[in-house]
C-alpha cells in the first residue's frame, strides 16, 4: 500500500484486520472518535482507558475491557465481557464501588499499578503489586485474563498482577479457586446482588479447607451444597463426567497451595457462572 517515504494512502475499500476495527469503519469505512478503541490489547503508563472513548481488546478479539452499566442501572463499572456478547460480563473491577457518571479513567502507573479514577481524580479501585515494575504494561489476554507485566516479559509466572486471581461471579478456563498458603491469597467466586448490581451477593463458591479440601456453595456463612472430594477425575458429588466441563478440570494440593483449576478451551470459552439465585451454570 505504501511506497518510498509515503505515510498515508487512500483506498476504495476497507483495509485492516476486522478484529481490531470499530464497527462503523468495518461496515462502511467511516471513522468516529471511538475508532481508536479497537486498535490495541496493551496500554502503558502514557495511555488510558476512558469511559465512552476507548476499549482494551484481546489479541484475538474475543474479549473487551471497558466501561458499562448493567441493565437499566445508571452506575458505571469497569468490566470485561465477550466481544460477541457485550451483555455477558465476566469480570468487574469496581464491583462494590460504582462510578456515578461517565468520566471514569483507568491508568497504569510507572510502578505497575492499575488505578481507576473518578471525575474528581479520587481513586475508586486499584491493584496491589508485590514488586515495583521497571517497564510495566497492562494487557488483555485472549483467555480473558487482564494482566500487568513487564513489557519484555510475557511469562505467566512473572506476571505482576492478574484478574484471574480475583474472580467475580464467573470462572473462565484457567481460573483457580483456592488458596496460596505462602501469600495467603484466596480466590473464590461470589454472585452479583442482582442482575443490575454486580456488588458481592449472598452466595459464594469456594474451596473449603476444613478436612480434605472440596468445593462448596455457601449462602452467607452457611454451606448449602458440596461438590464432594476429588477422585482424580471429577468431584464425587457429580453423577457423571461431561467432556470439557468441571469434571475435566485440575485439582492441586501441596504444602504451598491448594486449588481447583477450571476447564479448558477446546469448546471455545465454557464458563461457570454463579447467579444471584445461587444457580451455578456451566455454559
UniProtKB/TrEMBL annotation:
This is Bulb-type lectin domain-containing protein. PANTHER family: APPLE DOMAIN-CONTAINING PROTEIN, BULB-TYPE LECTIN DOMAIN-CONTAINING PROTEIN. It comes from Salix viminalis (Common osier). It comes from the Eukaryota. Keywords: Disulfide bond, Glycoprotein, Signal. Residues 40-161 form the Bulb-type lectin domain.
